[in-house]
Amino acid sequence: MFQLISGQLDVDRLDYLTRDSFFTGVSEGVINYNRIIDMIAVKDNELVLEAKAIYSVEKFLISRRIMYWQVYLHKTVICAEEMMIQILLRAKELVADGINLACSESLSYFLKNKISKADFDKDSSNLEKYASMDDIDIMAAIKQWMYCEDRVLSFLCKSLINRKLFTIKMQNEPLDQAEIKTKLASLMQEHKLSKLEAEKLLIQNEMTIYLYNPKQNKINILFKDGSLKDFADATDQWNISALGHPVTKHYVCFPK
Predict the structure, then answer these.
(1) CA 105, 107, 110, 112 torsion-angle sign
(2) What residues pair up with 250 in beta bridges, in sequence order?
(3) Which of 35, 202, 206, 212 is spaced 20 to 30 A from 61 at the CA atom?
(4) Domain with CATH 1.10.3210.10 in the chain
(5) What is the CATH number of domain 77-164?
(6) Which pTM value belongs to this model?
(7) 97 sits in which H/E element
(8) End-to-end CA distance of the chain, in Å?
(9) Rounded distance, CA 224 to CA 236, Å?
(10) In the chain, which segments carry CATH 1.20.1250.30?
(11) 156-169 confidence digits (pLDDT tens)
(12) Among 156, 161, 188, 165, which residue's Cα sits nearest to residue 88?
């Protein structure tokens, strides 16, 4: 049951690849999930896939790779997400300084309190409050915070709501910190910001993803003789095996 719900090839991934491919129009994300489901078997109390499904699994991993880089990790998506994260972090700072920000009760609870992962384990009411929030709570708050006196929070909220998204530069190599300092100084001068304020508008980060991580919940292939092989070893496609290596991207976002 655990492998069905959370794994390298689980029902969630089979669902969202097909669903998101349809709604975004990225046809490369279409997969033959019926074929994969038909080929699922159980060996030694673990889910495995019959060898006949190996090409369907290859198509699944390639489709997932395309969807990640064209949809889920698209530059525009990453930039908007980073802006939203900065909005919430800035709001939390202001609330900690005693400034009252209008928002829903659930969102206000998390802005006013420092809730760690351990707190979710200790008190189930934290999970209930978290689950009661959705995108409506966040977007309604951001629309109100557009008129906040804090210039940084107001600017971030207006930029996100009016879709004036930041510029994003992404590369495989670590960012040149000399260029970052120059850009920071430019932001401070252009918008008359303090260094702390400018740092909220110059977002540096990196992301590392595995499209297939053989160290976690392997996709095991069952052969006719009863033997099992990890998918990365069973496939004859060298480029599929390469998907097991992590890919790291470095990026910086800042106002246009």
Answers:
(1) negative
(2) 171, 206
(3) 206
(4) 2-72+209-254
(5) 1.20.1250.30
(6) 0.82
(7) none
(8) 48
(9) 17
(10) 77-164
(11) 999 999 999 999 99
(12) 156
231-238: average pLDDT:
74
Rg, Å, the chain Cα set: 23
Structure tokens at 96: 């900690």
List of residues 6+ apart from 1 with CB closer than 8 A:
none
What CA–CA distance (Å, rounded) separates 191 from 198?
9
- Please give the CATH architecture assigned to the domain spanning 2-72+209-254: Orthogonal Bundle (1.10)
Which stretches of 127-246 are assigned E, i.e. beta strand?
Answer: 167-171, 203-209, 220-222, 228-230
The answer on pLDDT for 235 being more than 90 is: no
DSSP 69: I
Q: What is the mean pLDDT of the chain?
A: 90
d(C-alpha 114, C-alpha 118), whole Å: 11
Q: Of 186, 188, 213, 185, give the one whose Cα is nearest residue 64.
A: 213
